[in-house]
Design a protein that fits this description.
With 302 residues, this protein is mainly α. It folds into two domains: 39 residues; 212 residues, MetI-like fold (Orthogonal Bundle). The chain has eleven helices and no strands. The N and C termini lie far apart (93 Å).
Amino acid sequence: MNQISLPNASVVERQPAAPAENALIAPRPSPFARAGLGELRQRKASGRRALFEQVCVALACLVAWQLLVTFNLVPPAGVAAPGQSIVRWGQLVTTAPFWAALGNTLLSWFLGMAIAVVVAIPLGISIGLSRFWTDSTRFSIDFMRTVPPVALMPVILLLLGPTLAMKICLILVGTVWPLLIQAIYAASQVDAVQRDAASSFRLGRWSRIRFLLIPSVTPFVATGLRIAATVSLLLSVAAEYIGGAPGLGTALAQAEIAGNLPEMYAYILTAATLGVTINVGFIYLQRRFLWWHSSVRANARG
């Protein structure tokens, strides 16, 4: 029989399979990743340390307050003990009049801030973009912003009475100027090189507003918003305390007239806590939405 010979086939050597345990070993992080993790841990530790220091200072103030009352270093008829004030504060939280007063204060604060933002920021940017209007309005703005808003309260109270409109008007008088001045300064500080670049690329009006004006103005306006928010709350409580409009200020005045010191200091603590909460909220929003700005990144590293 004829013998059929097959062609020689090439022999392929198979590589031994890698051990199964090698597949479970994660790659080592790069030096840049380790540096980023170290910086993140350092930031968290710094934040916890700062929070701990602030809590310690607050507790030290409460202890000092208690010692002043205990050893009669302050008139007992004018200062209540912190323990009594905090206990009364906890009792007020469960009552409807407390929340009604808090709601009235927050309503006037919000409406006054909203109107001030709508009026002051566009007007300030419009003035800041023009050298003529910046120089022409400088004296008028500097003069009017030095007038204390509380000094105008008798006039506003006579015209509007102890109403919500009176509080909003007083808030506008005090909060417009920080926003207006910050907006003027921000618009006037837009980089000239960036303006020339936008003109060279023939960007449209909306593109210039979006990519040039808004990133340049926003950090300054954010600072003005923080200042205006605190001033707005102070003026709202002052209008209620002096003018008699419904809110925390009126409740505080009624407790003072009745000689109920723990309740009076409870409303003072409420106003202070509200102010701190608003300020912390604006700081958080500023870090959340302006993470790209150099000042926010520098504070985060610090």
